[in-house]
Amino acid sequence: MTGEERREQVLGAALRVFAEGGYAATTTDPVARAAGVSQPYVVRMFGTKQQLFAEVYRRACARVVEALAGVQAGPDAGERMGQAYIELLRDHDLLQLMMHGYVAGTDPEIGRIARQTLAEAYRLYRERSGGSPEDARSFVAHGMLINVLVASGAPDHLGEDPDVDDLTTCVMGEALDGIKKRAAG
Amino acid sequence: MTGEERREQVLGAALRVFAEGGYAATTTDPVARAAGVSQPYVVRMFGTKQQLFAEVYRRACARVVEALAGVQAGPDAGERMGQAYIELLRDHDLLQLMMHGYVAGTDPEIGRIARQTLAEAYRLYRERSGGSPEDARSFVAHGMLINVLVASGAPDHLGEDPDVDDLTTCVMGEALDGIKKRAAG
DNA sequence: GAAGCTAGTTATCGACTGATAACCTGTCAA
DNA sequence: TTGACAGGTTATCAGTCGATAACTAGCTTC
Q: Fewest C-beta atoms under 10 Å: which of A66, A105, B103, B118?
């Protein structure tokens, strides 16, 4: 297998594994096993575990920004950007990893990327939808609420607590069907 | 020193230290040093590191819920609840710890508390302000955005990126002054 | 005055984990 | 054939960390 192919494979495995456990709690060993290579090889490929995480995180953030940037300006651009964000939920790991980035204060680079991604979403919303700063703020805020709900496992624990169900259905709405399908399938 | 006093001291120290580093990345040693006791004593006091974190997290969530529950119903209850949440920012560690709870999927109990706290904020907002589900959803969403911005260090990195500054000032607004004062003092 | 409880300590261990070193193997050019 | 390079592996270590065990000092109670 090509170095480039193997690298992509490891990055994909790392996305899944890091998304589940976060940076600190995840060892390089399950990443290696998920990618089908040995643990030392993973480390040597990226130098350090931290550099691997940084690379995974950079790519995840880039994918989110690209998804939003792909929405053309127009009268209903705001709604389409919301839809584009919901679409990202298909890849459960993506948004969950983003959450881990927000709290990974160990690496200042991670924090910088996290802040920039938030700001870019805000900027893109304003640019494409032409909405007010308050509209854009609400857009980003709802995105964060979705992230938090997903990260805390709300969609996986429906039916356990009526209050939680209320909030979850109010936030996720129709998107919930897609999520549950994904979880089941 | 009384056992109860010492216990409070350790819980206070653990809040600060866990807020900074999260659960997995934080060892029991700095908690012990911050509390002025030995590391084994911290562990024995709570059984395991995980149980210590759970206790700290429970208390933090309880404080947030209490702050919101302390707002009386009335015509401007919504605004006052927003104000109450901003007040919580005085204790920087509190909201930062909450963020760590959202991504601490290792312990199912933590996830349950996290979801319940979110739901309780939603429920209280609806109850006290009489607002629509959408209003309450926005309230909680903005709370999460504040949490994420604080956790990712946005208030500490103003002036580095214009886009980030835009978003931060739009979200935090006047509250920013109080935060900066706290950071300076 | 000794038993016993509370509030701690020091010493130490066993498991884990990121990282390093050394080695292996197939392919391809000279 | 030889050598060099890409793409890996196994063996192993050095540091870290949560947890346990054993011990100590002060206070109270009978």
A: A66
In the block, tokens 């990202």 appear at A88
> Which of chain A's residues have a Cβ under 8 Å away from the Cβ of B142?
137-138, 141
CB-based contact B155:B149 (threshold 8 Å): yes
Q: Give the one of B104, B122, B161 whose C-beta lies nearest to A116's C-beta.
A: B161
Q: What is the pLDDT of residues A99-134, one digit of tens each?
A: 999 998 778 999 999 999 999 999 999 999 999 999
Cβ of residue B28 near strand D, that is under 7 Å? yes
CA distance B111 to chain A (A): 5
Of B108, B133, B102, B65, which is closest to residue A169 (Cα–Cα)?
B133
Asked if residues A130 and A124 have their Cβ atoms less than 8 Å apart, the reply is: no
**DSSP result, B38-104:** -HHHHHHHHSSHHHHHHHHHHHHHHHHHHHHHTSPPSTTHHHHHHHHHHHHTTSHHHHHHHHHHHT-
How far is B19 from A26, CA to CA, in rounded Å? 19
Interface contact A30, partner B, CB < 8 A: no
d(CA A10, CA A15): 9
State residue B106's pLDDT score. 80
Which among A145, A146, A150, A172 is the top mutation candidate for probing chain B, defined by the most B β-carbons within 10 Å of its own β-carbon? A145
Q: Give the pLDDT confidence of A34-58 residue by residue, as tens digits.
A: 999 999 999 999 999 999 999 999 9
